[in-house]
Design goal:
The chain is an alpha+beta fold. It is built from 5 helices and 8 strands.
Length: about 210
C-alpha cells in the first residue's frame, strides 16, 4: 500500500487563495435588491455578514489557474507600459478568470452541538447526544456536516461545516482581505475529502415516493 507523504493535516500557504483555506473573522458585504413600488425602480442595499470562521471550497486547480493567468496578464501590461512590448503583439486571455470564490461558514463545535451557532435562527440540537458527536467527528455518518479537527498551535478550534450554508464571494473581495483573515490551509487528501463530501451532498437527488 502506498504510504502518503502528508504528515500534517494543515499547512501554511498564504501566497494565494487555496482550496481548504481556513479564514477567521470574515465580514462579507452582500448586495440586496430592494423594490420601490412607488417609483417603479429598485435600489441595492448592502448587508454585512460576519463569520467567526469560514473555509474556501472552490477547486484548487481553478484558483491556481485564475491566479497564474492574472499575474501573467499583469506582467504583459507592465511590459506594454514600459514600452518593452508592442500592444498589438500582446496576447491577453481572461479565459481562466474566476469572478467569484465559493466559501462555507465554519461553526464552533461547542456552539454547533447546542444548536446555538446561528443566534438569530432556531437550529436543531440533535448533536447534543454524545454518540452523535462521535459519528460527526468520523465524517462518515452525517452527510450534511463536515468536522474539522482543531489545532491549538495554529489557533484552529474544532469546527463544523454545514453544507446547506455556502455562498459565493467576489474574487477581488476575498483577495483584498485574505492576508488579514488567513489562518492555515487544509492539506491535500483532507481537502479532497472535504471537496468530495461537499459535491456529493449538493448533487443528491430527491426521489418521488411511488
Amino acid at each position: 500500500m502506498f504510504e502518503s507523504q502528508i504528515k500534517k493535516k494543515y499547512q501554511i500557504c498564504g501566497i494565494r487563495t487555496c482550496q481548504g483555506d481556513i479564514l477567521r473573522d470574515v465580514t462579507i458585504a452582500f448586495g440586496l435588491e430592494l423594490s420601490d413600488s412607488s417609483e417603479g425602480e429598485s435600489e441595492i442595499e448592502l448587508e454585512h455578514r460576519y463569520y467567526n470562521y469560514a473555509v474556501v471550497l472552490s477547486q484548487d486547480c481553478d484558483l491556481s489557474s485564475d491566479y497564474n493567468e492574472r499575474n501573467k496578464n499583469a506582467e504583459i501590461k507592465e511590459k506594454i507600459k514600459n514600452n518593452e512590448l508592442e500592444e498589438e503583439k500582446a496576447i491577453i486571455s481572461n479565459d481562466k478568470y474566476l469572478p467569484a470564490i465559493l466559501i462555507c461558514p465554519a461553526y464552533l463545535l461547542s456552539d454547533f452541538v447546542n444548536g446555538s451557532h446561528i443566534t438569530s435562527w432556531s437550529m436543531n440540537s440533535e448533536l447534543k447526544n454524545e454518540n452523535n458527536q462521535k459519528k460527526l467527528k468520523s465524517n462518515n455518518e452525517f452527510k450534511r456536516y463536515h468536522y474539522i479537527r482543531g489545532d491549538s498551535d495554529l489557533g484552529i478550534p474544532e469546527l463544523v461545516l454545514d453544507f446547506k450554508h455556502f455562498m459565493s464571494v467576489p474574487r477581488d473581495t476575498l483577495y483584498k482581505i485574505h492576508n488579514q483573515v488567513y489562518i492555515a490551509t487544509i492539506s491535500e487528501l483532507f481537502r479532497e475529502e472535504l471537496s468530495q463530501r461537499f459535491s456529493n451532498y449538493i448533487s443528491r437527488i430527491g426521489l418521488p415516493e411511488i
